[in-house]
Description:
Strand content: 15-25%
Number of domains: 1
Distance between the termini: 73 Å
Amino acid sequence: MTSYSLPEEPNWNFGSGSHDAPAYSGSKRSDFPDMRKMEDKVPAGHYAVEADGTLKFYLVDKPTQGRWKGYTFIKVQASDEYWPVKAANSRYDVLSRIVAVGPENASKRYGKEIGQCGVCNRTLTDENSRRAGIGPICAGKMGW
Length: 144
């Protein structure tokens, strides 16, 4: 008869003081008091930003009517699928990255990389629009 032993419980202790915790350790919105300021700096649209040495694509959705009016939703794009970014620390990180490079630059980079307007997500068919990463109507609307 073979006996098996259970593995030890993992040690999830991050240290005795809050200074030992990861920089963005909170998972609730209330852990990030300036989250609203970050959300206000990033308009609705599509963005491409570097994260851990990898270019990632995001959708920032801000409904203007209905039940979710006034809320900000962030989704990460993987191929043609969008997956919600739910944890507050992850949402804050995405918004921080977009703000750091500038929403205009991140949106235009999305357009250049994907070939779709970073604001409305329509296909960019004009050569100048593809080079700019944004269509002329959205560029005028956004003031970019």
